[in-house]
Amino acid sequence: MYRCRNLEFVKKFDYIENAAYPDLNSNTEIYTAGSFIEIESLAPQQKLAPGESTEHEELWELKMI
Fold first, then answer.
1. Which residues, in sequence order, are CB contacts of 35 under 8 Å at separation 6+?
2. How close are the terminal C-alpha atoms of the chain, in Å?
3. What is the DSSP letter of 44?
4. How, if at all, do strands 2-4 and 28-33 pair?
5. How many angstroms from the chain centroid is the CA of residue 31?
6. Can you tell me the distance from the alpha carbon of 64 to that of 22, in angstroms, rounded to the nearest whole number?
7. Quick check: 26 and 42 in contact, CB under 8 A?
8. Residue 3: how many CA atoms within 13 Å on its side-chain side?
């Protein structure tokens, strides 16, 4: 969740218990620089065969508070 003045941004995504995530087993990364903020969700690592695919879904909500 991120709040700025009268706005609230909420980003929701699944966490899979016992899955292997990248970057020291993290499912979330946050980056800031001055007034900029990035909230990045990470999916578990998995091997895919040629032609296979996967999905990583996020639900975004923007509310006036």
1. none
2. 13
3. P
4. unpaired
5. 12
6. 34
7. yes
8. 4
Q: In terms of Cα–Cα distance, which of 22, 54, 20, 19 is closest to 41?
A: 22
Single-letter residue type at 38: E
Q: Where are the domains of the chain?
A: 2-46+55-64
Residues in the chain: 65
Residue at 18: amino acid letter? N
Q: What is the mean pLDDT of each run of 10 residues along the chain (65 residues)?
A: 91 94 93 90 96 96 95
9: which residues sit within 8 A by CB, 6+ positions away? Answer: 1, 2, 3, 60, 61, 62
> Which pTM does this prediction carry?
0.75
**Which tokens go with 51?**
């032609």
